[in-house]
Amino acid sequence: MNFIKALNSAWHENNSLLCVGLDPDPARFPAHLQNRPDAIFEFCRAIVDATADLVCSFKPQIAYFAARRAEEQLEALIDHIHVRHPKTPVILDAKRGDIGSTAEQYAIEAFERFRADAVTINPYLGRDSVDPYLAYCDKGIILLCRTSNPGGSDLQFLDVGGEKLYERVARLVSKEWNTNGQCALVVGATFPGEIARVRTLTGDMPLLVPGIGAQGGDIEATVRAGCTASGGLIINSSRAILYAGKGEDYANAARSVAVATRDAINLHR
Fold first, then answer.
1. Which residue among 11, 108, 128, 185 is the one 20 to 30 A from 3 at the CA level?
2. What CATH number is attached to the domain comprising 89?
3. Mean pLDDT throughout 69-91?
């Protein structure tokens, strides 16, 4: 799957900029799933099937699976999405960042083992640490730029030759690193001013925007700062959708919140 083409198609066909983040925490699962060996897969599968027509992508966070030795359930989940919802791209949220030889292994993990359509990575080690991912010409490479956490400013706002570090990252990725046209950037909804600045620097490059919902990012400000004619934004919501319900109807509750979130985003497009 060509990630950017699939993303553009999903933006149009589902009329949605919403991405559902899959961060499964078994402690918050409904009672009927507690202690089941396949609980993580079953929980996420139900959320996926209930919301697939409402989203532009799904974003499983690898740490929530790996911490519970559930990597095989992650593989099964991504395979399920590809089989049942083949037009919906999957972003593996891994935030990898290492030297070239190790990055090659991380790229194999993301794109060959898990068969993700895109992966999040950290650009701090520079271009040679990104090249192994770029070798997969159709896969999405989503680089951290201006993250949604308060501590992101510790480094991302440092002055580097007259521009802030996050601006340097945005410029480098859009002008020099985006050799396959498959790159995107992470910019948090908690900083709409920086979303607008990154949009100015990168043109129509897709932006993965975490931080609405539980983190308090403003939907209207996010959309106005970063939306493009084709879409331009992958606006992620995780906990607010995943844990909208506590009983056996949790997937229906998740769908209701996803509908409301998608519609709130579209209201400002």
1. 128
2. 3.20.20.70
3. 98
